[in-house]
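Lecture notes, structural biology module. Today: joint structure prediction for complexes of two components.
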Amino acid sequence: MKPELAIKPIVFILLLVPALYYFYAVYLALNGENILGPDPAQALSLATGEWSIRILVAALAITPLRYLLNMPQLWNYRRMVGLFGLFYVCLHLIVFLMFLLQWQWADIGREIVERPYITIGFAAFILLLPLGLTSFKAAQRKMGRNWKKLHRLVYAINILAVLHILWVVRSSYFDAVLYGSLVSICLGYRILRKYNPVVRKFVLLK
Amino acid sequence: MIIKTKKDIPSSEITSESSYKNRRQFLKQGANVAMGVGVTASGLLSPTASAQIMAPRSAAQLNLASKPEWLAQKMANTTPVPNSGPYTTNEMLTPYQDVTNYNNFYEYGTGKQDPSNNARNFQMEPWSVEITGEVNKPGIYTLEDILSPHTFEERIYRHRCVEAWSMVIPWIGFPLGDLISRFEPTGNARFVEFQTLVDNDRFPEQNSRFSTIDWPYQEALRMDEAMHPLTLIGVGVYNDILPAQNGAPLRLIVPWKYGIKGIKSIVRINFTSEMPNTSWNDISAREYGFYINVNPEVSHPRWSQATERRLPSGLFDRRIETQMFNGYAEEVAHLYAGMDLRVNH
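The predicted structure, tokenised, for the full assembly:
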């Protein structure tokens, strides 16, 4: 048995565990119990946001790591990790609409238009949708070269996500610097690899 | 004023006998910790208050410094909360557990639980407050000098955070105006400015390279705001001294302003003729004005201030409407007569 066959389900479950925990918390809340602290709506919003950016960055790091570590098998995880990114972004949006804005549609429209960090976050979500919809193998085959072009949108999506975090900074730049650096490294590596022959050679020799 | 009626109270929060007994037990323990001094009788023992009380916890877990004898005596002689008027409210109290474990006190870290986790080993004394600027009696006063002449009062205030959540908190304190009068401000004293302690050992976030705050944290009031009888120097909460994470040993409480005005662990009070800088105004003047009065009609640029989540909040609880000046309009609106509150936000 190939090791991936054993590892892949484990990675799948690990990525699912945070969401399962928060689903459980919402289930408890429906029964009047609370494990999310005194401000559960805020706690859920923060948690789903954090998991979104972690997983989006992880998906973006797969290609650089595949070259640097010379592990082509990492590519087997790209689709799954990317789809988990979309999944957590959806949860983040649903938490915002359902628990923070409480489905007040007039407020929702105003918030998306008037608050730049929400506009940006919403734009990132919209851009993620076509990537999710074309993530299966048949779409990949059918679209050919265009598939790759379309999926380069993840670069823009990660930049928007970092801007979204930068825009909610209050007392500390820590998260913005952390995720901004990680995204910069992942994107910078791609640029270097594409345009710098030394890096290309070094990487290909491995 | 929003008064919670019976049907708004989730069944999980209706007092059971055991939780009432827990509350009594907690009070007894608290009294024992407080060097055997009895706890003042007050409205806190009403069934509404006791409905929400946490499991008993020790003083060490709460980051309560040991109290000097003189302070224990003063706490014991606290004037109970009045039955009506602006110094109290019938709204449900936010439980002690949440008041002391859900804090913005950025010196201790950026997370809501960082203050309660990082405020260990807080020593209350020695503590002194430096009085400077336009006063006849400047100087460095010890904590005892500052607090001794004042009678402590209990007051139940709404506390509205700029982040659109709110609590109802039974504070212990005394009017800031009484303290200010002792220093005899001169005619040039138009503003009063406060600073928090700088201490790289006790306050880990003051070492952070990523903080947006230029320490020390500073806040300020116009003189008439400072002299207003609602404005308190807070020294305690829930019948005991302030835990470190709530701003021990003394802090500012201005219930009609967003919580960021309530500067904690004060070490300097300065009287000036010019409007002082305030920390959040320095970070982002567009988002935080000098006044930061609670105002549902003026949105924070990043979120609406029209409603708030009253904590503790259930995930499915409705937000409540935010009131002008946090419900203290009758008492304070005249301070801002003729001012454009959109500009002076």
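Point to remember: Residues 3-201 of chain A form one domain.
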